[in-house]
Amino acid sequence: MKPALILSALLTVSVAAAQKTVTIGWSGAITGPTSDAGSNYGAGVEDYCKYAQAQNMVPGVKLNCVVRDDQYNNANTQRNFEDYVGNQQAAAFLGYSTGGTLQLKSTIQETRTLTFPGSYHIGNIDQPNADYIFLPISSYSEQLISLVEWVAKKERGAKIALVVNPSPFGRAPVDDVKKAATRLGVTIVDVQEVGGNNLDNTALLKRFESAGVKYVINQNTAGPVANILKDAKRLNLLGRMQFMGAHYTGGEDLTRLAGDAANNFIWSTSYYMYDEGDRPGIQFVKKVGAQYSRKPDTIRSVHYTSGMLAASIAIEALRRAKGDGSSAAMLRAITAMTGSQAFNPGFTVGPVTFSAKDHVGAETLRLLQADATGNFKAITGPQRSAMFKLVHPN
Fold it and tell me: How far apart are the first and last CA of the chain?
């Protein structure tokens, strides 16, 4: 071998030896309940990590990003977490479900594992045992209360029904929403649990009609909501009832499933949309999705963007910690993302900011409404809910 080739080979070996491997693990529903959201979320995590590794975003570190299907089963989530943290000494855990995150809270605290759940339940970061858990965007409670505020401004004394997923994810924000409704002068007249097997919602919708419900607010994924909307169209209730929902209910996932029955659906989320192509973050989503040959429906899904955000926050923390994946270094990096040090990957309508006392990242959100073309258009600017802070001050 020529001397130049020998030197090149030695340098390659030297660089490889100098690199250390740092694991970031995701566990979520690629199959099973809520997989209509989870499969795209996991794809976003995987692709952002691949891109970050290819771009050497964290010099001196080889990113080992592991994406595993837990089938929305808390026992599987627990096993995945234990492997990531115990065997692979993960620098961060990217969770998914509400139930799984709540079950792991004390373990996350004991192991000091920086955690970014796909569940935006505010209870995830309520003390005790919440020093290492951070919500990427605004909570379900704030998203839903923002919708109740919109209703209250439109119609004092309005009757509202809540339709929630039959899981901790669905039930999590109900108490906060009820408290807010009382203070805002509107009435929650019914709360119903609806899962993904809701192929005929006639009885549910007739029940709401008989109770005088004019607003139906959903805390669910797009699949069950789409079935409700199609039945509401069949029963000629669209227009007589305003259907609304929090983050996991809407976006192009909903319009793809519900068709024109999704027209006028009002949605609360912190993310930019696929058709807002002037936004650098959305341009990035499209670029990376195409680079890794994702299907158009995946790239267009807001949950693909959601997964990218979670991965980007963890990797940015590792970058700011100069590749030190220890819990102390990662925590320092995350809690310093405030003020002029805020992180803005461009996926959300406001920057991602964290501090020791503030564990919600992109706090601002918008209300959007589906138009006749199936796209969601903003009907408010970026905002916070005033009432949320009153009913859930911590």
Answer: 66
Tens of pLDDT, residue by residue over 112-158, are 999 999 999 999 999 999 999 999 999 999 999 999 999 999 999 99
Under DSSP, is residue 281 helix (H, G, I), strand (E, B) or coil? helix
Q: How many CB atoms lie within 10 A of CB 102?
A: 18
* Residues in contact with 92: Cβ distance below 8 Å, sequence separation at least 6, in sequence order: 24, 25, 113, 114, 115, 116, 314, 317, 318, 325, 330
Residue partners of 367: CB distance under 8 A and separation at least 6: 146, 147, 150, 266, 267, 268, 378, 379, 380
Sign of CA dihedral 206, 208, 214, 215: negative
Q: What is the pLDDT of residues 92-104, one digit of tens each?
A: 999 999 999 999 9
Which one-letter amino acid corresponds to residue 145?
I
pLDDT tens-digit map of 294-350:
999 999 999 999 999 999 999 999 999 999 999 999 999 999 999 999 999 999 999
CA distance 288 to 269: 22
* R_g (Cα) of the chain, nearest Å: 22
